[in-house]
Amino acid sequence: DTKYEYLIVGVKGEKQNVGLIQLNRPRAFNSLCSPLIAELCQAVEKFEMDDSIGAIVLTGSERVFAAGADIKEMQHREFPNVYKNDFLGSWDKLAKCRKPTIAAVNGYALGGGCEVAMMCDIIYAGEKASFGQPEINLGTIPGAGGTQRLVRAIGKSKAMELVLTGDKMSAAEAEKAGLVSKVFPVDQLVNESIKLAEKISSHSRVASMMCKDAVNTSFEVGLTEGLKFEKRLFHSTFATADRKEGMTAFLEKRPPKYTD
Ligand code: CAA
After folding, report:
1. Is the beta carbon of 113 within 6 A of some atom in ligand 1?
2. ipTM above 0.90 for this complex
């Protein structure tokens, strides 16, 4: 089994079908140094390839989800180096994961922490969570999606305000704005997120991956193209055993048994 320095990784759920990844760099407020991101990409890829896993939960500690990219690591870097190495480029792996992902955010999700949460498909938050893009306070700007995904999640005015001021948004505000889908007491958040992941895992794998693919396509293409893509994927479910099983089970009034 892989040993991680900055992560705690395990399999959860009654049916052992949920991958749980916990960011674990407590001395640096879970700041996202390059080796941590490399481990995160590796852990996500392993769950992605594991047929028994239907959904992935990403969390931090009760105090902090992640306080952003590692400021110590960035302090002395120069333009040619970050440009040539495409600094932060590897973070995309998480956004490209094809299985459903849930961010369970307790405490701070700032800068890169907020951006990593937004790379997940669903965000659940603990009551004391806070979200923000404080890069402006460091003389820089968000570099892993903060100016793009936040706008799509909460609209221009709120996103612009957060990015231009560096102010934090509470869990309650984030839920109202649509960044977060539900808020839970701090000590129940991870369990509730695992329950959600178990529910997602109980459905047809192929169908849930297609749902994710289709929803994410809505961010990339115009409505006509998006509707066409959705329709073609829908048609393609008629080539799966799960589609036949799902409809047959409904009509026979019994629970479905998915195999694809
Ligand atoms: N990078 C490196 N170290 C960090 C860090 C970060 N992003 N955030 C916190 N730390 C470290 C602090 O330096 C401190 O270390 P020492 O104990 O060695 O001094 C330790 O974590 C605890 O931090 P604080 O003493 O500041 O704790 P606090 O409770 O007073 O405040 C906080 C907590 C509000 C999260 C505050 O630490 C903070 O504002 N952190 C920076 C947040 C930030 O600016 N994030 C954006 C980074 S840039 C980025 O992410 C770019 C991108 O788009 C990807």
Report:
1. no
2. yes
